[in-house]
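Need a sequence for this fold. Nothing fancy.
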């Protein structure tokens, strides 16, 4: 039986490389799963730093954090993902981006704009963005009334074993050591 210890970050003997890993990597999605047009009619994309992504001046996305609690651990499983915003909310977030007190912003409606590995059908789940102080990226909280495994797991948490399984493609890309 694998043995999991609660400490400063999850520490575990890896089922793949048999070494001990401490902490789980953040799982990152490089860009939003936006509709980029048909071949030959691609929609122009503008990317501003690591946090802002605009398609054809019409579809607006920002980088956010999706957390899933790990039961019995003091670490969450964390995804760096994209959430959509209305043009007005995108502007509000943009204008306050350098501020250290962004939690003063109202929460903002958003759609999760990535398909999360291990959670088919998660792309497009409705959510709310909560802004944080000290230049931390906003937290994305899925609409708790939606019936989807990712919503369930964000509400109730996942086991350490499941978190490790979800992180494995990042710990060991393409099954390599
Ligand atoms: Zn490993």
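Here you go.
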């Amino acid at each position: 039986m694998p043995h999991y210890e609660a400490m400063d970050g999850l520490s575990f003997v890896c089922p793949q490389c048999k070494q001990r890993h401490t902490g789980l990597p953040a799982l990152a999605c490089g860009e939003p799963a936006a509709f980029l047009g048909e071949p030959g009619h691609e929609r122009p994309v503008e990317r501003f730093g690591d946090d802002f992504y605009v398609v054809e001046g019409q579809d607006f996305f920002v980088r956010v954090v999706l957390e899933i609690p790990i039961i019995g651990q003091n670490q969450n499983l964390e995804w760096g993902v994209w959430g959509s915003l209305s043009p007005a909310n995108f502007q509000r977030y943009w204008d306050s981006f350098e501020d250290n007190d962004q939690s003063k912003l109202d929460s903002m409606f958003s759609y999760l704009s990535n398909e999360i590995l291990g959670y088919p059908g998660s792309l497009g789940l409705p959510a709310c963005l909560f802004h944080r102080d000290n230049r931390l990226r906003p937290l994305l909280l899925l609409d708790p009334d939606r019936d989807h495994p990712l919503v369930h797991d964000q509400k109730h948490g996942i086991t350490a074993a499941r978190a490790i399984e979800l992180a494995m493609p990042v710990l060991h890309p393409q099954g390599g050591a």
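For context: Strands lie at 11-13, 20-22, 27-28, 45-48, 52-55, 59-69, 76-85, 108-111, 126-130, 139-142.
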